[in-house]
Write a structure and sequence with these properties.
7-stranded parallel beta sheet; single chain; 7 strands; alpha/beta; Rossmann fold; globular; 8 helices
């Protein structure tokens, strides 16, 4: 197979599926990772010119690292790892939920960091290796909602920077992409998202496809390693005291 390979975690649905489609259209062989979404992963793979699916529970960091090591031994031209899988569960600043915290730290921080380490240690590529970590604009525009999620993303962002600094080969690159409010999340309904999605400097709905375009740009471009792209229409430049999910809900309730 002459196509370059890419692994997209959480690739079966939402943002991950858009990343898979963008790279497939650009001529890549896409490996679609999924946790429990096997039908969605297989349906997506069937629509792409060159794709396969791969299951792993990222709540088990040992299994996540083993998955990468197994792929590294098999693939001869594995150019990109996209860490897009995440869990988004609520707890607040008044009390951490131990279960939510454990899942967030495993799936959103430890597993992707260890996967990137294993890939940069063992992956083979004909044109340099590239890690793209999905972070969150709220790390710059902090608020106390989704406390464990945000803590885990902050740890992951630090890992992204450290791994970029530690990369031994000059052709290896580690990047971050920080999305804003792009799709309905948690228990949000479409009307609430229509409001929350415009809570940014430009007052526009940022298309999820823009994230896939950003990932493709990083993979095929020459931006300096360690950079973070904010794809959020300027949301991270604001100061929002709560997650926009709740700000939009409050605004919708008042207007109703």
């Amino acid at each position: 197979m002459n196509r370059p390979h890419i692994l997209v975690t959480g690739g079966a649905k939402r943002i991950g599926s858009l990343v898979c489609r963008a790279f497939a259209a650009a001529g890549w062989h896409v490996i679609i990772h999924y946790g429990t979404s096997r039908p969605a992963a297989e349906d997506l793979a069937a629509t792409l010119p060159s794709a396969e699916t791969l299951q792993c529970d990222l709540a088990d960091p040992d299994a996540a690292e083993e998955m990468v090591c197994t792929l590294a031994a098999r693939l001869e031209d594995w150019r990109v790892l996209v860490n897009s899988a995440a869990v988004f569960e609520f707890d607040g600043a008044d009390r951490i939920d131990p279960g939510v915290f454990a899942r967030a730290m495993a799936v959103n921080a430890q597993s992707p960091a260890r996967m990137a380490q294993a890939y940069l240690r063992e992956g083979r590529s004909r044109a340099g290796r590239c890690v793209i970590d999905f972070l969150d604009q709220k790390l710059e525009n902090i608020n106390p909602d989704f406390f464990s999620y945000t803590m885990a993303k902050a740890a992951f962002a630090a890992a992204t920077r450290m791994q970029a600094m530690a990369a031994v080969r000059p052709e290896d690159r580690v990047y971050g992409i920080a999305p804003g409010a792009m799709m309905p999340s948690f228990d949000q309904n479409p009307d609430e998202h229509e409001v929350s999605g415009r809570m940014n400097l430009l007052g526009r709905l940022t298309a999820p496809e823009e994230l896939a375009e950003a990932a493709l740009f990083l993979a095929e471009g020459s931006l300096a390693s360690g950079q973070v792209l904010y794809v959020d229409s300027g949301q991270h430049l604001l100061s929002q005291p709560r997650d926009v999910l709740y700000l939009a809900r409050e605004a919708t309730t008042r207007s109703g």
